[in-house]
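Appendix B. Chain record.
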Amino acid sequence: MSTMTARIVHLSVSRDWQSVYDFAGEPENMPLWASGLASGLERDGDSWIARGVLGTVRVSFVPRNEFGVIDHTVTIESGLRVYNALRVVPNGDGCEVMFTLFRMPGMSDEQFSADADHVLKDLTTLKTLMER
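Structure tokens predicted for this chain:
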């Protein structure tokens, strides 16, 4: 398999990285800013279940860590697993929030661009919540 095209979507947040990581890394808070999980997440063992436009999906997160990593894998009902790399990185008194978006096989330029816009919208919502 060759590498997929990737785009890093990021923005600066005027809040210390640890506070942003603590908030963004809690699955219970994700519906407040990650619109793809707006229906909410319910715990199911070591992972979480969300129901939405893609049907029922399973979300598995990396353990909490000291590096600001909130990576998670979303498994769609079809069995497709999508790896989502999400980072909160210190930047002075604030931080950078970065999401690596991968272009899935068969995805058009328009779909990839729309996905990037969607991720930026979600990160902007997170920024707004964190800078209140």
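Further analysis of this model is presented in Appendix C.
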